[in-house]
Design goal:
Layout (H helix, E strand, L loop, with lengths): L1 H14 L13 H18 L1 H6 L1 H11 L6 H9 L1 H5 L2 H25 L4 E4 L10 E9 L6 E9 L5 E8 L2 E2 H16 L1 H7 L7 H7 L1
Antiparallel strand pairs: 1-2, 2-3, 3-4, 4-5
Helix pairs in contact: 1-7, 1-10, 4-7, 5-8, 7-9, 8-9
């Protein structure tokens, strides 16, 4: 169940950019996260039977409604870390393409795994002069302890909020992927990692959280 929560959290990272700028009212980061999360999950719940029986519609939902709005160059830089700087342009483009496909599979699985868990939005303190923020939430599976899910955001020059990481029970999704990928690159090289992304599983750190 905690793995499902982690996958859903990363889905929300992508969905955070799913509304065009002209539809984004000035709002607090807390209100922003709540609006995005509730809208996405409401749509999933309403279409669950359709999406489960027609995988192509599930893929289309992710491809058309979420993936085009992800800042993949930035997320890819965070995930590759120092290896982004040493990669050539062709390697960067191939990594982004395969990483996007990995996230597509992850998002599709997470969408169908969601089972109407309660989501609590917790109060937080924030320095209004800062451009970054953290939004604290809890996901409450039936009969289980709450799972802490914290969203890290930054405010663009246009005043929009963008989520750039999600931390589930103290485990950063971006950092987990970065650590996992770094070990593979150090052992076999970046080209090998790119070639193997099609078979990649969630990071080991998140599997530990799920246990």
């Amino acid at each position: 169940m905690r793995m499902i929560t982690a996958l859903l959290a990363f889905l929300m990272l992508a969905a955070s950019a799913a509304l065009p700028a002209q539809q984004m009212p000035a709002q607090s980061p807390e209100a922003f996260v709540e609006t995005i999360v509730e809208d996405v999950l409401t749509d999933v719940e309403a279409r669950r039977t359709e999406l489960k029986s027609q995988p192509e519609k599930l893929r289309a939902l992710v491809i058309d409604g979420i993936l085009p709005h992800v800042d993949f160059p930035y997320v890819s830089q965070l995930v590759l870390g120092k290896y982004w700087r040493t990669a050539d342009e062709a390697q960067r483009q191939r990594f982004m393409r395969e990483f996007q496909r990995l996230l597509l599979r992850t998002y599709a699985d997470a969408l169908l795994a969601y089972d109407d868990q309660e989501i609590r939005y917790l109060p937080s303190r924030r320095d209004e002069s800062r451009r970054d923020a953290r939004v604290r939430t809890q996901v409450v599976p039936r009969g289980q302890d709450p799972i802490a899910v914290n969203y890290r955001l930054y405010r663009t020059d246009a005043g929009e909020w963008k989520v750039f990481d999600v931390v589930v029970e103290g485990v950063s999704l971006v950092t987990s992927y970065r650590d996992t990928f770094a070990r593979e690159i150090e052992q076999d090289g970046l080209d090998s990692l790119i070639a193997n992304l099609k078979n990649h599983e969630p990071p080991a750190a998140l599997q530990d959280v799920a246990s």
